[in-house]
Design a protein that fits this description.
homodimer; about 230 residues; mainly alpha; Ferritin; Ferritin_actino (chains A, B); Ferritin-like (chains A, B)
């Protein structure tokens, strides 16, 4: 309805940089919001495999943290005049596909998925926060400061893979598959949503930065596999 | 292992009153803690019946609030030197039985259960907070201040029962059944746990107070049914 052209400072390539008014910011928040809700339901589903009450409680606490992140993003969207539910629906298929293609078949697979997923989300939040204007970065950092609930995974996975080479090989493959599916779905999302590509491209060095971003994700993923005793 | 008799001020009927050292306080916190975890998993299960994403998000937000309550109770137990998981396990059967016997078969039944359950929990927290020493009451009130996430239910249930007398009758019966099962399970818990009975009996007027407590629960339940358009 609003045919007013964007303010010149947003489109002038000389001044570059992203402003909080960039339409990609709304899309980014909507994508992340759906990611949190999808993670909530998947964690609680996968927690059914827990061998005991303590495991189920740890997973429930992580799931609850996802909803706290969701609320930060929903409030940020509301401040931008955007209703979160319709805005996030368009990202449902990519996130549901990721979870459908990475349904764990054992409690250990569920634990590794939780840890890897939480870590990838944290990396992702940190990367984008650096590239965004302060006002937007503050929202992203508020969400990030809430991650790190998955430390309980490390002891349990390390114990299992120390006791069994077969488990170590299985879980190492599983962990690589998780990263691969995450990258695949991230690329589908970018291919379908020009505003998001534009947001990443205009914040810093563009395409080079995007390649480096995926490289960095792979390196930090390798570090996490080592923490879990999988590499 | 500890054969020391309780300190005289705890057992002297003349001074009455409950101290924070009463063993029933630990049992109460453990019972409530299991209640929060059970509610978390049931809400997320029942949310699967939601007709849309907004409904699923509302249920997820309520479930996340239950885990925040759980954490308040766990911390309070830790301050008392009690490990929450073993302490709460003995209350599993009563709470799981309540949920098993009140499994909703429609989304509207799930909404009513959420609302009634949240309200009963709030009543219960408020009643016991008044009867407890300040230090303990503060914990209970911190949990209570977090309830009230179920207001989203009212509009949806009222609309459905205004449109259909059949729905109103069905849901009114359902709502009475929820209260009945909650009272039945509460009585089983009291019958099995003398420390809890002693806690309630010694805080105020004892048995009379307990009867009045259940009477008040029924009255506030009737008020809630009216809010929902069921009475």
């Amino acid at each position: 309805m609003n045919a007013t052209p964007p303010a010149p400072e947003q489109t002038d390539p000389a001044t570059a940089g992203v402003t909080a008014a960039h339409p990609g910011v709304t899309e980014l928040f909507a994508l992340l919001a759906y990611g949190e809700v999808a993670a909530f339901y998947r964690l609680t589903d996968e927690a059914r495999m827990a061998p005991n009450l303590r495991g189920r409680i740890n997973m429930a606490a992580m799931a609850a943290a996802e909803m706290n992140h969701y609320e930060v993003l929903r409030d940020a969207l509301e401040r931008r005049g955007v209703d979160v539910v319709p805005a996030m629906t368009k990202y449902a298929s990519a996130l549901e596909n990721y979870h459908r293609l990475t349904t764990p078949s054992t409690w250990l697979e569920a634990l590794v998925k939780t840890y890897v997923g939480d870590a990838l989300a944290a990396d992702f939040y940190l990367e984008i926060a650096d590239a965004l204007p302060d006002e937007v970065a503050d929202v992203v950092r508020a969400v990030l400061s809430e991650t790190g609930h998955s430390q309980f995974v490390v002891a349990e996975v390390r114990a299992a893979v120390t006791a069994s080479d077969r488990q170590r090989h299985r879980l190492a493959l599983w962990s690589r598959r998780l990263l691969g599916e995450a990258i695949t779905q991230a690329q589908f999302v970018l291919a379908d949503h020009d505003e998001l590509v534009d947001l990443v491209m205009s914040s810093g060095e563009g395409l080079t930065q995007m390649t480096e971003f995926f490289d960095r994700l792979q390196r930090t993923h390798a570090a996490r596999m080592q923490e879990l005793g999988l590499a």
